[in-house]
Write a structure and sequence with these properties.
Elements (H helix, E strand, L loop, with lengths): L1 H16 L6 E8 L2 E3 L5 E6 L6 E2 L4 E5 L2 H26 L3 H33 L5 H29 L4 H26 L2 E3 L4 E6 L6 E2 L6 E4 L4 E8 L11 E5 L7 E13 L8 H4 L3 E8 L10 E6 L1
Antiparallel strand pairs: 1-10, 1-14, 2-9, 3-5, 3-8, 4-7, 5-6, 7-9, 10-13, 11-12, 11-14, 12-13
Helix pairs in contact: 2-5, 3-4
Length: 313
């Protein structure tokens, strides 16, 4: 009987020792930084922040040299203006000088035709009276026909000059104008991308490069930590995993932190860690832990790497 009581006491003590101490889970704060870099490589010309600075969304953080991008924009604007002028010229037809010259030629041809017609009528009258021969009438008839043809030619030339270009030529010019406008937008985007603004409010964690160094898409200039990218990471033993659910609340505490801090569970890993390489017995399952992340209500109250005690609510 005495031996049985001893065995029962040992089992009770063993069972009690496997329960978590006062329900506190160990965790730490971790921030997910945004590494910011220019889209195109260039020399860093301005750096407006230092490590530890807090910035607002849209603040200009740094810039790289923009002389070449500005030159490309100026070139695109000039080419667009030239294409637009060409299109307007095609739509209007000939230049005013060309139109005036064609009108003068038409008036000259009409005057010659009027004179030839009058001469023909006089010659015809004299031929009918027997004063002149029919040969002279034939000559004046030929002159009249020639001047009539010149009037028709001058009239046609004036109409052609006044007409706009062919529709297919105008369509091609319109497409050229659109292409030039697209080049302006592309150049403006390239110039704008030379200055990097904060995509969100946050704290400058690390400055990787200084003014004068080369930065590029694979060479970030600084790391920004937005408050909503800070998480409290902690590990939950397998026996109490059923108490964890997405959106659940937790209480948070740390050294020298104010009381009443809390957070919301936003991630529960579906893979165990520290898993023994054996078939799981009931005792082995207690060794399994799962990573859980909580978004703190006051992210700025925690520093990266800071130990945090977590209690489920």
């Amino acid at each position: 009987m005495r031996i049985l009581l001893i065995l029962i006491s040992v089992l009770l003590l063993s069972a009690c020792s496997e329960k978590p101490d006062d329900g506190v889970l160990q965790g730490y704060a971790e921030g997910r930084q945004l590494n910011l870099a220019p889209r195109s490589a260039g020399i860093l010309t301005t750096l407006n922040v230092r490590e530890g600075d807090k910035v607002e969304e849209g603040s200009v953080l740094f810039s790289v040299d923009s002389e070449r991008a500005q030159a490309q924009l100026d070139e695109a604007i000039a080419a667009s203006a030239a294409a637009e002028a060409q299109l307007q010229n095609l739509r209007k037809g000939g230049r005013p000088e060309e139109i005036r010259a064609a009108e003068e030629s038409l008036r000259e041809a009409q005057a010659s035709y009027t004179l030839a017609q009058q001469t023909f009528e006089r010659t015809k009258n004299l031929v009918e009276r027997g004063v002149l021969s029919t040969a002279r009438l034939d000559q004046d008839q030929a002159t009249l026909d020639a001047t009539r043809a010149r009037v028709t030619e001058a009239q046609s030339r004036l109409e052609i000059i006044q007409l706009p270009a062919r529709s297919d030529v105008i369509d091609a010019a319109m497409r050229e104008v659109e292409a030039r406008k697209s080049a302006i937008v592309r150049a403006q985007t390239e110039l704008r991308d030379r200055s990097i603004v904060a995509p969100a409010a946050g704290r400058i964690e690390i400055v990787y490069r200084r003014v004068g160094e080369i930065a590029g898409p694979n060479q970030p200039v600084l790391a920004l930590l937005p408050p909503d990218q800070k998480r409290i990471r902690f590990f939950v033993p397998e026996p109490i995993l059923a108490q964890i659910e997405h959106g659940g609340r937790v209480s948070l505490s740390c050294d020298n932190c104010e009381a009443g801090l809390g957070g919301e569970i936003v991630f529960v890993s579906d893979q165990a860690e520290f898993t023994p390489p054996v078939i799981f017995s009931e005792n082995d399952r207690a060794k399994l832990v799962y990573l859980v992340e909580a978004l703190p209500d006051d992210p700025e109250k925690f520093l990266n790497g800071q130990p945090v005690d977590v209690m489920l609510q």
